Give the backbone structure.
Amino acid sequence: MIQHRHHLFFRIVLLSGLFASVAQAQQSAATLTGLVTDPSGALVTSGTVSLHSSESGADTIATTNRNGRYTITGRPGPGYILTVKAAGFAVFTSTSISLSANSPNRLDVRLKVADLTEQVSVDDENRMDTDPNHNGDSLTLKAKAIDNLPLDSAELLQQLQALSGGPSPDLYVDGFSGGTLPPRDTIREIRINQNPYSAQYDTNPGNGRIEVLTKPGSNKFHGDLYTYGNTSALNTTNPFASNEPAYYSYANNGSLNGPITKHSSFFVSGGHQTGQDDKVVNAQTLDANNNQIYLTQAISAPTAASNFSTRLDAALGPRDTVVARYFVLNSMQTNGGVGQLSLASQGFNSSTTNQILQISNSLVISARIVNDTRFQYMRGRDRQSPNSTAPTVAVAGAFTGGGNSGANYNDNQDTFELQNYVSATAGKQFFTFGGRFRSTRDANHSLANYNGTYTFASLALDPTCTPLTTCNSYQVTEQALANTTSPPTFAAIQAAGGGPSQFSITQGNPNVAVTVADAGLFLQDDWKARTNFTLSGGLRFETQNHIADHADWAPRLGAAWTLGKKGKPVNYTVRGGAGIFYHRFASSYVLQALRQNGVTQQQYIVTEPQFFNPTSSAGINLTGAQSQSTIYQISPQFHAPYYISTTLSIERRIGSLGSVTASWVTNRGDHTQFTRNSNAPLPGTYNPAIPTSGTRPFGGTQNVYEYDSEGVFRVNRLTTNFFLHYHDKLYLYGF
C-alpha cells in the first residue's frame, strides 16, 4: 500500500511542478469578493458573476460557489461594472467600481426575485475558467434544460446516469447521500461530475456523481397541474401472447409554491402514477392430464406509485437561513417474479415506502466565513408477500412453479446523516473543512426457501438416460402419483425414472439486524494563484465499523490553467487531478455474514428424496439430512478498497454554442473487494464425481465464503464529451 501511495505522490509532484511554474509567470492582479443572497437572505449558488472593464472592454466571468460566495479578478484601477445573474432572479448591475491591489475589495449582492414573465439569460455553466466546479466533463442543468428531461422518475434517473458517463454514479439530493431522486417538478438544478478531486467528496471520479438541488418557494404564488398517459390503443400487441391484458399508464402531478411570511416561503408537490404492465410466461409444463404443453400466457402486473414533497425556507436573520424538506414515496407492484419460465404461482406482491426528512442551516458568521449544518433521516420499508407458500418446484429448462422461494420478506432501514462544513476565504484562497457522520440500522426478516424447493432434472423422460433412477423426470412423477387406484411406492417411481433429484429447505431464525456507521473528515483549499490558474489541494480521512481497517487517508490535488491571448476570448482550458478514493463496506454484506454464519440458519439438503409433496413442506422428516451450511464471513484482515485516480483533460470552447472536452483517466484499484471460498479443496485432492471428496484447509465439507480485499483493478480510459446548446431551444449532450 505504501508503494502505491508513492505512485500517487509522484503524480502529485509532477502536477504541482507543471502548474506552479505557470503560476509564477503571471502578473499581479486585484481581487473582488462578495456574497450573493436572495431577498430572504438565503445563499444563491451557481449564479453568474461578470466583471466588465470600461478601459479594456474585457469581461471576466466567475460563479458563486455552494456558499453563495464569488471571487473574481481584474487589474487594479477604476471603471469596473459588476453584473450578477441567477435563474429566477432579476439581473443585478452595480455602479462603477474601483479595484485596489493593496487592500481587500468586497461587494455583497442581494438579488430581487424576477417577475414570472421576465426572461433571465444565464451563461452556460461550461464556461472556460479555472473554477474546479467547471471541469470539462461536468454539466449543470437548469430551468429549460430540466424541463426537457423525462417526467418519469425512473427514466429521468436513467438519463442522468448516462450523462454522468460512469458505471454507478452516486446520487446526492440537497447535499445528502443515499437519497431518492425527487420528482422533476421539484428540481431547481442538476450538477453532474463537478469538482471530482475535492476532498469533500468520497465519490470516485471514474464512477460519476449526480447532485440534485430542489426548488425553494418564491415571493409570489405559483402552481402547476398536469396529467399524461398512454394506453394499449397507442401500442402494438405482444406477438407471443394472445390473451394480453390491456396496457395503460397514467400520471397526475401538481405543485404549489409561494410566500408564508416576508422572510419565509414554501414549495409543495405531489403526484400519483398507475400502470398496467404485462409479464409473459413462455414455458413447458403439464396439463391437467399430465401431458406436455407449451404455455404462453400474459399475466397482469399492475403498478402504482405516489409521492409527496414539501420544502420550507426561512430566514431567521440577515445571516441565518434554515431549510426543511420532507419527501415520501410509496410504490406497489402485483405479480412480481412472474415471466419467462416462472409460472403465475411464482408471483409476489411488494410495496416500498421511503421517507426522507432533511434540515439544513446556513449561518454567515462573518464576511469571510460561512457555516453549514445539515441533518438527514431516511426511513425505508420494503415488504414482499408471495401468492403461494407451497414448496417451489424447479424443472430444469422447462418451468419454475409452486410457491416463490423468496417467500415473505421485510426490510427496515433507518439512516441518520449529520454534516458540518465551514467555508472561509482568505485573499485568493477558498478553504472548506468539516465532516460527515452516517449510521444505518438494517433490520431484515427473510423466509427465503423456508417453504422448500424440489428440483427435477427434466420435464419428460429422456430415452437415453440410464440408469432410470438418475433421470428424475417431473412428468413420470406426476403420472405415477395420479394413479390413485394402485399407487406405486416411491421406490417404484424412482425406478421408472421419476422422483426429484433434490429437496432443500432452510430453517432457523429469519431475523437479523445490523448497524453500520462511517465517518469522514476533510480539509480543502482552492487557491486562485493567478487570473488563469487555480491550484486545489485537500486531505480526507475516513473510518467505519465491521472491518479491521479503521484509518483511511485520502490526499487529493487538482489544477486548472486557461490558455489564451490577452484581450482575446479564452478557448482552451487544461486540467489535471489525482487522488485516493475509498469504497465503504456495505451493510448488505454484514447482514449476509450474520445470517449465514452456520448458526443463525441451517440448510437441509436431501439427495434423491423418498417423498414429493408439492402443496406443503410441513411434517417432512429431515433427520440426518442436515448439511454443513455454506458460511459467509468477513476477513479479519479486510482493508477498505481504495482507488488511485488520475485525470488529464483539455477543453475547447466552440464559440457561444458550448464546449468539447477530451480526458485521459487512469484508475488503479487496490484491496479490491471480492468473495473467495477459503475452505475450497486443495489442488489435486478433489474428484468432481464425488462431491464430498477433497482435502480442505479447515476440514469438513462445507464452503466458507470470505469477503476479502486482495483484488486489483486497472482501467485506462480516453473519453470525449460535448455540451452544445442553441439559446434555450436545443440542448445536445454526448460522451
Q: What stands out?
A: The chain has six helices and 37 strands. The helical segments are 2-23, 143-147, 153-164, 474-481, 490-495, 587-595. Confidence is low (pLDDT under 50) at residues 12-27, 115-126. The first helix runs from residue 2 to 23.
